[in-house]
């Protein structure tokens, strides 16, 4: 029969084991919560980073930034379609109407020179030269609540083609923080048009993305204007069709194919 001393020691060991088990459970709970919070942040960053892969890196050093009044269109990879770089001193005020006549319907857009004069200047020049005519929109991302965009502007349809020159980004001002992103991403709201880029600075070219649902992105992509209500209806239809998941950075080819038949620049207002 155990003595009182033995019973006390046994009770003490039992209590110690219970304390150890409780401490271990608490530790595991803390670790799980840490992992969950890290995963949540990484998920937002990963979605935001995915847009970098809309354009392939050229492997060339970033060009020197130009003064605000001058645009430097620096030669890069071979042009995906013949064109001439635009003049380096564009207007910095006013708007330009551009309509994408596509296989799924017209997408009218209003480009704002004040928002990104160098990018608007390039897009208008390329549209006037027929660079965007008869080209696909090869990538759709349908991540509702984080990234909903249609990528266009590469005549090759590969996501790597461009106009043969690159230029500096014109970061947007005044974008709201994206909810739940912990300040790591901004809201590119439904209806915006922005220029795609690679992970390297100064890598903006001809590619752009049409935002049809609020999207989480770093505020590094030049915003060039807005899509009309009719244009958003076209994008909603394409988005509802989904993508084939073929792009490792997210999204893929739209299951409802979109071909830009012609990009029409409206004549200047009198």
Structure at a glance:
The chain has 270 residues and is α+β, with helices and mostly antiparallel strands. It has helices spanning 4-50, 117-128, 229-241, and strands spanning 74-75, 95-102, 105-112, 135-136, 139-143, 147-152, 165-166, 186-188, 192-195, 208-213, 215-217, 223-227, 259-265. β5 (139-143) and β6 (147-152) form a beta hairpin.
Draw up the topology in text:
Layout: H1 4-50, E1 74-75, E2 95-102, E3 105-112, H2 117-128, E4 135-136, E5 139-143, E6 147-152, E7 165-166, E8 186-188, E9 192-195, E10 208-213, E11 215-217, E12 223-227, H3 229-241, E13 259-265
Tags for this model:
270 residues; 9-stranded antiparallel beta sheet
> What class would the helix/strand composition place it in?
alpha+beta
- Number of beta-strand segments: 13
The chain-level mean pLDDT equals 84
Distance from N terminus to C terminus (CA atoms, Å) equals: 109 Å
Folded structure, characterized:
This protein is 27% helix and 23% strand. It has 270 residues and is an alpha+beta fold. The longest helix is centred in the N-terminal third of the chain and has 47 residues, at 4-50.
């Amino acid at each position: 029969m155990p003595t009182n001393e033995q019973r006390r020691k046994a009770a003490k060991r039992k209590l110690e084991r219970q304390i150890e088990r409780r401490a271990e459970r608490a530790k595991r709970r803390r670790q799980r919560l840490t992992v969950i919070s890290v995963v949540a942040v990484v998920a937002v960053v990963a979605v935001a980073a995915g847009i970098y892969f809309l354009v392939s890196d050229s492997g060339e050093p970033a060009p020197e930034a130009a003064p605000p009044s001058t645009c430097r269109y620096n030669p890069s990879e071979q042009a995906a379609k013949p064109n001439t770089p635009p003049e380096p001193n564009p207007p910095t005020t006013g708007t330009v109407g551009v309509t994408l006549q596509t296989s799924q319907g017209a997408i009218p857009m209003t480009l704002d020179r004040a928002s990104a004069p160098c990018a608007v200047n390039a897009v208008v020049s390329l549209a006037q030269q027929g660079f965007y005519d008869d080209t696909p929109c090869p990538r759709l991302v349908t991540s509702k609540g984080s990234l909903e965009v249609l990528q266009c502007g590469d005549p090759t349809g590969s996501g790597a083609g461009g106009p043969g020159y690159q230029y500096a980004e014109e970061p947007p001002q005044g974008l709201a923080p994206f909810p739940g992103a912990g300040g790591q991403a901004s809201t590119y709201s439904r209806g915006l048009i922005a220029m795609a880029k690679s992970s390297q600075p100064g890598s903006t070219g001809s590619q752009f993305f049409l935002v049809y649902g609020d999207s989480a992105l770093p505020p590094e992509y030049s915003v060039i204007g807005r899509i009309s209500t009719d244009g958003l209806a076209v994008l909603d239809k394409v988005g509802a069709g989904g993508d084939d998941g073929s792009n490792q950075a997210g999204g893929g080819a739209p299951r409802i194919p979109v071909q830009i038949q012609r990009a029409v620049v409206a004549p200047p207002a009198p």
